[in-house]
Design a protein that fits this description.
By secondary structure, this protein is an alpha/beta fold. Helix content is 41%, strand content 19%.
């Protein structure tokens, strides 16, 4: 009965709205810094971009972009994804309901191909796309190839982004989720743009996948350093 109740649209809507309100509280009660200095102005010259983030470290990423940048976020079609999608819509983000997988069966089940096509179209229309680089259910912080394929076929660069706060609760979940807390310090760390040439052969994509992984890990380490903490 509890599971059925948890899937009710009105319950998901209430939880998603509450999550959005809580995240706004966290943002407005933490003293945020952005690094490197001037990164928003530099990035704006290259819009649209593909914003890469890690699962479990993604809750505050909507606050990493200026409000006037049009953006959509790729979110899974699971119940947890529905909550995140409702929260994201409260921040004015467009939605692409899909996620990647480790094999063709998972990709089909999760709407990965349809989401990929929708993301390519959105980038061509000028929307930046935010998506987690690691595949749902792990392993955590291992970048999948999907985000690299999106960069290759869209011609748009990948931008590693990490957000950290000085106070948080770390959950014992597959993605090492960090629940950010209010009343502290916050940071937004941005890595270097990663371009994937359109003529890159599939067997050569591994080097770019590793660049994304290394770039995100470096951004995450930097974000935590900025708030005086060890890597999350």
């Amino acid at each position: 009965m509890i599971k059925r109740l948890g899937r009710q649209p009105w319950v998901l809507s209430a939880v998603g709205s509450a999550l959005a309100g809580y995240l706004k509280l966290v943002y407005h009660t933490n003293r945020f810094v952005v690094a490197p200095e001037g990164v928003h102005d530099e990035t704006e010259k290259q819009l649209p971009v593909i914003v890469a983030m890690w699962h479990g470290q993604h809750f505050m990423v909507p606050f990493a972009k200026p409000r006037h940048w049009p953006a959509k976020v790729m979110i899974s079609r699971s119940a947890d994804g529905e909550v995140n999608a409702i929260a994201a819509s409260k921040f004015g983000l467009g939605l692409i309901r899909a996620s990647g997988g480790k094999n063709a069966r998972q990709i089909k089940k999760r709407g990965g191909m349809r989401g990929f096509i929708e993301a390519v179209r959105a980038l061509k229309d000028g929307y930046s796309i935010a998506m987690t680089a690691d595949v749902p259910k792990g392993p955590a912080r291992i970048a999948g190839e999907g985000i690299v394929q999106l960069a290759k076929h869209s011609g748009r660069p990948i931008l590693p982004v990490a957000v950290a706060t000085s106070r948080s609760i770390e959950l014992n979940s597959w993605d090492k989720a960090s629940v950010n807390l209010p009343f502290g310090k916050g940071s937004i760390a941005v890595g270097d743009l990663i371009w994937v040439p359109g003529d890159t052969e599939d067997e050569a994509l591994e080097s770019y996948r590793k660049q994304v992984e290394d770039g995100l890990n470096a951004a995450t380490t930097h974000a935590y350093q900025l708030v005086g903490r060890a890597n999350g």
